[in-house]
Automatic annotation (TrEMBL), chain A:
Location of the ABC transporter domain: 13-252
Pfam families per record: ABC_tran (PF00005)
Alphabetized SMART domains for the sequence: AAA
GO biological process: transmembrane transport
Upper taxonomic lineage: Bacteria, Pseudomonadati, Pseudomonadota, Alphaproteobacteria, Acetobacterales
MF-aspect GO terms: ATP binding; ATP hydrolysis activity
UniProt-listed CDD domains: ABC_NikE_OppD_transporters
Descriptive protein name: Peptide/nickel transport system ATP-binding protein/oligopeptide transport system ATP-binding protein
Keywords linked to the UniProt accession: ATP-binding, Nucleotide-binding, Transport
TrEMBL record, chain B:
ABC transmembrane type-1 domain segment(s): 95-300
Species: Humitalea rosea
Protein's UniProt name: Peptide/nickel transport system permease protein
Location relative to the cell: Cell membrane
GO terms under cellular component: plasma membrane
SUPFAM superfamilies for this protein: MetI-like
UniProt record, GO biological process: transmembrane transport
UniProtKB/TrEMBL annotation, chain C:
Superkingdom, taxonomy of origin: Bacteria
Keyword Transmembrane helix in annotation: no
Family annotation (Gene3D superfamilies): P-loop containing nucleotide triphosphate hydrolases (3.40.50.300)
Primary subcellular site in the record, as a coarse category: membrane
Name of this protein: Peptide/nickel transport system ATP-binding protein/oligopeptide transport system ATP-binding protein
One of the record's GO molecular function terms: ATP binding
One biological process term in Gene Ontology: peptide transport
Keywords of the record: ATP-binding, Cell inner membrane, Cell membrane, Membrane, Nucleotide-binding, Translocase, Transport
ABC transporter domain sequence ranges: 5-249
Membrane topology field: Peripheral membrane protein
Stored SMART domains: AAA (SM00382)
Key word Ligase present: no
UniProtKB/TrEMBL annotation, chain D:
Broad class of the protein's primary localization: periplasm
Lineage, opening ranks: Bacteria, Pseudomonadati, Pseudomonadota, Alphaproteobacteria, Acetobacterales
InterPro entries, per the entry: Peptide/Ni-bd, SBP_5, SBP_5_dom, TAT_signal
An example Gene Ontology biological process: peptide transport
Protein name: Peptide/nickel transport system substrate-binding protein
Family classification: Belongs to the bacterial solute-binding protein 5 family.
Location within or outside the cell: Periplasm
GO molecular function: peptide transmembrane transporter activity
Source organism (scientific name): Humitalea rosea
Amino acid sequence: MRDPLLSIEDLVVEFRDPHRPGGVLRAVDGVSLTIAPGEILGLVGESGSGKTTLGKTILRLYEPREGRLRLKGLDITHLDEAGLRPHRRAMQMVFQDPLSSFNPRHTVGEALAVPLRLHRLCAPSDLAARVARSLEEVGLRPDFADRYPHQMSGGQLQRAAIGRALTLSPELIVADEAVSKLDVSVRAQILNLLRAVQARTGLAMVFITHDLHVARFLCHRIAVMHFGKLLEIGPTEDVFQHPQHDYTRALLGTLHAREARARTPS
Amino acid sequence: MAASRRAAVLLLTVLAGAMVVFFAMKAAPGDPALSALGENARPELVAAFRRLHNLDLPVGEQFATWISGALRGDFGRSLTLAGGVPVGQLIAGRLPVTAFIGLYALILAGVISMIVGTVAALSRGTALDTLMTSFAVLGVSMPDFWLGYVLVFFLALNLPIFPSYGFVSPSDSLPGALLSGFLPALAIAAPMAAVFSRVLRAALLEVMHRPYVQVQRSLGLSSSFVFLHTIFRNALIPYVTIIGLQVRYLLGGVVVIERVFGIPGIGSLMVDGAFGRDYPVIQACALTFLVIVLGTNLLVDLLCARLDPKARGR
Amino acid sequence: MSRLLEVRNLRVTAGPLAVVRGIDIDLDEGETLGLIGESGSGKTVACLSLLRLLPDGLRTEADVLIYKDRDIASLPEREFRPLRGRELAMVFQDPVGSFNPAKRIGWHLRTAIARAGHDGPWRERALELLDGVGIPQPAAVLERYPHQLSGGMLQRALIAMIVALKPSLIVADEPTTNLDNIVEEQILALFRDLQKRLAAGFIFITHDIGVAAQIADRIAVMYAGQIVETGPTADILAAPRHPYTRGLIATANALAARAETLAEIPGQLPALDALPPGCGFAPRCAQARPACAQPQPMRPVGPGHAMRCLLDA
Amino acid sequence: MTEASHVAGISRRGVLGAGAGLGVLAGSGWSGPALAAPGVLRAAITGYNVVNTLDPAAAALIPEFYVIWGLYNGLLKFDSQMQLVPELAESYRVTDDGALEFKLRSGVKFHDGSVLTADDVKFTLERLMDEATRSPNRSKVSALSAIEVPDPLTVRLRTAEPFAPLLTFLTNARTGTQILSRKAVQADPAGYGRKPIGTGAYRLRAWEPGQALKLSLFEDYFIPGRNRIPEIEIPLIAEESSGVTALMGKQIDLTSTAPFADIPTLERRPDIKVLKQPGLNTRFLQLNTRKPPFDDVHFRRAVSLAINRDVLVRIVLFGEGVATPALIPPSLTASYDATPKPLTTFNAERARAELAKSKYGAGTTGAILTWGSGWWKRFGEVVAAQVNQVLGTNLTVEVTEANTVFSRIRAGDYQAGTWGWLGMIDPDEYSYDLLHSSGWRNFAGYANPALDTLLIQARRELDPARRGALYKQSEHLWIEDMPVIPLFCSNVHNLLASNVTGFTQLPYSNFGDQFATMAIG
Amino acid sequence: MRRALRSRTLVVGLGLTLLTLFGVIAGPWITPFSPTEMDFIAVLTPPDMTHWLGTDSFGRDVLSRVLSGGRVSLFISLCGVGIGAVLGVAAGMTAAWRGGMFEVALMAACDLLFAFPSFVLALFMMVVLGFGLHNIIIAVALAYLPIFARLARNLTRTLMHEPFVQAARLMGQGGGRILLREILPNIFPTLLVQASVGLAFGIVMEAGLSFLGLGVQPPMPSLGVILADGREYFTRGPWVLTMTGLVVSVALLGLNLLGDALRDLTDPRLRQAAGP
């Protein structure tokens, strides 16, 4: 087995929640898993299962309470913002709501140029061309660079968001319900794009979703989460064919029922 | 648990407020003894003055004496008024007056804003709405003390309906207090009513567009039922909240208006104290206002908790 | 079965914008129509307009609007209001938002029960209703505030309120979209149960063709304010005719089959203020031809099956 | 609807609660002028809201005396023609050995029930004379060398030198010689100012500091009378204009002062009676001769010459007064010197010439201390404007609170201030007190041996005409040095509601002494 | 209809505000009279063609004084609100971003200042610092500091967890850069609304303090000083008080309308209840 790109050990994330006894919500509760380079790991579970929290903690957007995060063997669990900055490039994110993942006051072109400028990845004179190329890579015309987020559709923005994540040539992308807010007829476009991008660049991806169909389509491995705990993890078809956990079975049951009825409508 | 925590926070705030009030005043330039007695005052008189007002103690001890006295309602003696009258006595005599005027203004503002806000929301987009909204903006644009004078000019001097000056204590005569307090309360209430009615209008419109209102209409409930039980009731939450937030502005208005109308309340006492640099009086007044605001906030929070089940237990 | 609802050429406009551009709906008693469409296709607005629940600024027109042999288009609001709840009812997408957060569940049920004209103690009736929609410990639930219950529970409670009113037509607007998979499955089961228990007609709005497949007798697919295809569920799933319907079903099938790449519908949904002149789908359609720039009428393509497209015509 | 009325319910309870709380708390004090309680005279003191003490010996401010006059009596008093008549004394005479002998009325009772004796008179005057009392009016009695009490109803006063003003100083005016009860003072010497015990027609019932006082009729008052007003409420209204508003709105029946600007309007109103006459006062610019820039006589003269007093009267007083060439006001006819004096007559050219002689020039800065109520601030502003215009100086007005002004001027912590005593009744008070090197009101720090001698001579002179001549002479003497800059004399006013009768106004602006004769029609 | 109403609010608000600004800035060139020079001949003359708002008790032109006093009052309010806003926003944004004890302490301090009625706080400060122009500015700033600090902190906290800010962090942007570049432009409109409303209330506060005699001291004209003078001669010359107050009301009306219009125009996601 290859060395893991990212390894997570006994990760615990807590939030303050005055409504709960003890005043603490344990959103991620002792999760351990590894992500190999170039694999797509599906993180499935229902709302409140902690999958988004886990995804954002991997990126150190949240501070883990316990446990360890290793990026290519390097412990990044408690690096501060400055210490983290050199490693930020390696890990990017695509968010659920494409509109709110762009600053409404900046054009899409500016949004794509910032990381390039910040990490000095290209000469100022090449910036425009480089942004245009990034847009084209995700299937957008270069003239979208001058648009403001509210002037674009959800699908277009999500393409731009993927393009922005790719500018830094990351090794890992966390995609958090990246298609669930999109129109049904546009979802397939983005799923195809993600798959194509992964195939082309060989990056690893954590794909967070509640849609089992989508997870099964895209992911190499599946991790099932429930109430902050990791219930099971395994190659996609293993999990789908031979679920180990009762909860996984119940979850998959909804899928099978739907499929069955779709084939033989009442 | 929550209640005791709340009480602790409240007490801490009062204590911190007392410290701010006390030490800020101590930092003010000038010796209170000399400013009260004059710079050429004889040393033994100055010494006696300092002893009387505890000024001979170290500052920390002065504060301890002051705060422990304050807890018992003893705020020391006035430096200027009637040759050193106990400040606690002054405050006790005037607090009910300020409370009455403040409450009166609050009720007036509440009644006016409920009418204006509701009418504007229900007639949204029409000329009536524009009229009501304009009145609201105009109301918040008039300095309250100026409005007080204009009201006196028209409603007390030209049309002798209300008394032009002074105040009847409600303990002497409640109708008299209501009558003599009307113009000052109205002058304070006008800008408040403007703010309140805008908030109520916005809140009503906001609640009207909530899905549960649509659900209730889809069940065929009558519009008056939906308005009273759901729209108006739920709009009261932000409305009451804003009233709580605005109480501090309202009390600010009370200070000026009391002076303008010669109402013997805490506000005019504080202004007199400010003129005379009467530190004990100013400290006590500021602290009293602090306690009033905190008390009102507590009341508003309790009321909000009654109105909004989600806010309970917080 | 008798005809419950007949709608011809229903149009909803917001100022100069047409949100619903002339749709026809026929519904029999005991029948369930699945109305499929993406956000902005006008499906929700069309149904809200049937109950006259549209927000200010939206105008409804229809050539024919007949409910139970009554022309309800011309009814004044005073006479229409009693129909809401008792005859036409609606389940909304957001169960949490459907409840007045300041009132207990008991208050909501009491209100519904009173509206149903029920005599006698409301409490027993409420417990009975909650029990009927599968809510455990109904007595405790009556004392709860909405925020203390899960979305699934609230959706059940809302359904219980509607059951109390025994309406003849129930519009369900994506009632499971905001719910988790397992709960969604349970609510769908509850709807199927209701279909058996109540002799009501259902209009079930969804964007998920799989959900429609489970629950609907007939399906109508909406795109850009129009119904582009309608027919019996089995026919539509087995042999979709409109390119848009075909695209949706192909995508769903490809996902389920874990194909290498998904069948895409290229392009974006048209904006309301930039609708193409003829077929709304033409700009995204691989088979579009010049004639598509003309408005297309619904064409019958099979028994009870019609579509709005030049293909195969 | 239930929710709305619920809110109202809380508020209503709140109101009642506040009312009930007030009943408990307000027992100690007074809470404002009543609207129209029957049998209550609402006699407002306007322009002031500071009353520090009701001890005549300690009193300094005019509002304090306004009240004291109603609570106490002097041995003598002024009648409506400003003639001296006995009050607590039944009669008085000069004895053969030159002593002043007073026979007291018998059976006069103090508010605490004790009976007035000659011992109380002796106590009162000795207390006033005592340095420790620190009375602002000590100088009025400092000439006394002995006080004899031959019997309980006789008092003999002896002075080392003849002391002409003594009789006027024993009236119930702004004198501090109002007779106290020895018993009451000795019972609580420190707190006496808050619990005054006099022989007057009214006794103090309640005192809300800074706000109002309440008097009630003293049933055992020694002058019999019927239908006296049982209650007097004395609201203290800081702004004169508010006093007028209150009177016009019928919230008060009488005010002690009126804004000069409003007099013409008020005189035309049928529902208000305006009493007015030239007052016993002189308003002047108090200078501190120990501090720059007023330590230079030429600068002082320049300032005086730069002020046009007629304009001052018109602008500051709206015509309600007259310009005065020196300190002694026109009402004191025997001593008043009407001849214009060059140094107190507007002369821009000469002003600039004096400025040239002084060590200060154009651009000199200085602050005129004044207070924010009524016309005093205007007084300062107009003076500063005039002087700056003529001399090119940069005088500013410093506005603070009256008590502070008083303290600071008394302490010498000032450069200049608007000043002027109201209700001084003897030329000696306008001269000796203000300008004698040991005069107690000599805040200028002025000392002129020749003037000192002259003023003492005037004190000893018992003949009114010769005494008057001495004062006229003294004014020519000090005016060259200009330790104070005399400016004008203002009218005194009282405003009454038209149904109020029995108020006799005297030029020293009396007030509380009229309560006993007043009636509300 | 609503759009039209909104833009009408904007037009009227902006118009009145610009008129006010023009008046106070160009005041000396608009009226031929000096705001401080006394004319002892024309004392308390009613409004006429020469003196549009009449003269005051020293014969000074009321219009000139109102324009010049307006400048003083506006200056005080602008400086006070400006200082309060800059310091408050800086503190509030930093507190939200850094969290921890700094945030707790700052918010506790804000809560404490909030518990005093704002005018009482200002009055108190005037006693501590002494009367006068500079000290009113400090008092106004102190009254506004907690408002802006709390507002900026709450807005920043809301935006901090927005995906676009998280995206910025992932791109490797530093805290200061994110606050200035990503967050500030988005909260700025809301702060501007608060500032415009605050500017209006700052003027009222100055007027109130000076009206009582605790603020700006004569002969410097400020709106409060003019109103106080007008009150003194209200019976003889009611126009001084009435007209000055009317002008103040119109100016404040402009600011408040402008604030309303701006509030409507700002992103509804950021809308917050703002006090005066």
